Amino acid sequence: MGLRLExxxxxxxVIHNPVRDQADVERLKVIDGGExxxxxxxxxxxxxxxxxxxxxxxxxxxxxxxxxxxIEGGSSRNYLLTKQLMYCEPKAWHQLMDKxxxxxxxxxxxxxxxxxxxxxxxxxxxxxxxxGDYVEYVLPHVQLIFEGLKREVVPMIHFGTGTSAMLRQxxxxxxxxxxxxxxxxxxxxxxxVGHDVAVQGNLDPLTLFAPLHEIxxxxxxxxxxxxxxxxxIFNLGHGILPMTxxxxxxxxxxxxxxxxxx
Length: 262
Prior knowledge:
Blueprint: E1 5-8, E2 12-15, H1 22-27, H2 37-50, E3 57-61, H3 63-72, H4 80-88, H5 90-114, E4 118-123, H6 131-137, H7 139-149, E5 156-160, H8 167-173, E6 177-179, H9 186-193, E7 198-203, H10 212-226, E8 232-236, H11 246-260
Parallel strand pairs: 3-4, 4-5, 5-6, 6-7, 7-8
Antiparallel strand pairs: 1-2
Helix pairs in contact: 2-5, 3-4, 3-5, 4-5, 5-7, 7-8, 10-11
């Protein structure tokens, strides 16, 4: 799209020409996804290697999270520059979000065509917003993505962190499955979004650093709150940390299988 992106060691994504005003937004290209064909190639290879053993999930960052990186130039604690553009230049903000939404839609569609059997939209930083700001500045652009992918007929997961207060609004924005982080009990989150949609979650990723008996206690609690209803996908409440013990991950998966059969 014209952003100079680097994944800097110890920092994560860094944008060297951040978006700060209307002119910067207008310079961004709306690409059709062809530049990312290597991702589609990786999906085809993965599907072949998996040989039907487990489904393959495609994913993309959501418009707000991408916008926050593009504006801040990287990660942020308070999202000052992001909210400043949002409040002070709403026309530029919505134009930026619209561009991201259209590119994300095409990107996810290419992943589905390549063999992704479900897709997940990650909004890792949207929890910094109030419910009112989410509805005004984010929700319409997320709806554009889910509406644009409806005809692809694959399950669509909508996930954010720090979003306990806006789960109902996220459900309104779209998705067959609403991802839940660890800051709210699973049963409370499910009651909020409604039992007519599936939920995914919600073990704290740092729990995997605990002793196995503590991991099992927390896994059991999540499954108890799910109540045996169809539509619960057990998962972490956010990404797994690089230094996590693989043995604890494997043990957690075994616990989920064992406890789910009771």
